[in-house]
Automatic annotation (TrEMBL):
UniProt cofactor(s): pyridoxal 5'-phosphate
UniProt keyword Transport, yes or no: no
Top-rank lineage group of the source organism: Bacteria
Modified residues (N6-(pyridoxal phosphate)lysine): K40
Its biological purpose: Pyridoxal 5'-phosphate (PLP)-binding protein, which is involved in PLP homeostasis.
Organism of this sequence: Streptomyces griseoaurantiacus
PROSITE patterns named among the record's database cross-references: UPF0001
Domain Alanine racemase N-terminal: 16-236
Family the UniProt entry places it in: Belongs to the pyridoxal phosphate-binding protein YggS/PROSC family.
Keywords, in A-Z order: Pyridoxal phosphate
GO molecular function annotation: pyridoxal phosphate binding
HAMAP family: PLP_homeostasis
Biological classification of the source: Bacteria, Bacillati, Actinomycetota, Actinomycetes, Kitasatosporales
Name of this protein: Pyridoxal phosphate homeostasis protein
InterPro entries (UniProt xref): Ala_racemase_N, PLP-binding_barrel, PyrdxlP_homeostasis
Amino acid sequence: MSDRRTQLAANLAKVEDRIAAACAAAGRAREEVTLIVVTKTYPASDVRLLAELGVRHVAENRDQDAAPKAAACSDLPLTWHFVGQLQTNKVRSVLGYASLVQSVDRARLVMALSREAVRTGREVGCLLQVALDAGESGRGERGGVGPDGVGELAALVEEAPGLRLDGLMTVAPLTGEYAGRQQAAFERLMDLSTVLRKTHPAANMVSAGMSTDLEEAVAAGATHVRVGTAVLGVRPGLG
Ligand SMILES: *Cc1c(COP(=O)(O)O)cnc(C)c1O
């Protein structure tokens, strides 16, 4: 095995142990939680190694970085998730590889995704990104719709041709009432999911938790954790 492969295998094993322990502590079955590896800033060669090591879900947050990487990995049995702030002019490129967009946060984006899904005859999974630190504008600083806007946006996705409403996603806020209170934030997301599922029972994905707080997310009931650093290493610079 190459050094990198050995390193990724060891990191994956550690993350797997953490998820399994968190599931056990929460009285949940391990199968209830899906690991999505966030490969942003890392090369296609790493994605290939991860696929060989059994990873099936990967996520990216910038189209410029993701599009060539996904193209280089198109032979692999991977599901690509898009988790970054998405401008409507990038929708066509992103839907060229991503089957799920976890950062749906406004009506204009829903319309653009729907148009492109219909044009290409595909069904696109959508998670609404919830900003638990949304200010008066009803939007988060790093994207996301405020809790009050979830119902309306969900209805829009549900009605949009080519789109499938899959659930909710959040990133633990760095500011506001939930700063430093990841578990409370994820429990709030779970409450919003419970409300959402009353009218949209199939929208049962709850995407929460990253390298530092996946345990809190699993404890709160997350179905998907998005882990980058703990698998691939600390990213150089911003990412
Ligand atoms: C980068 C990123 C992650 C992974 O974060 P790590 O701390 O590296 O695990 C998860 N979700 C989103 C939306 C991200 O941008």
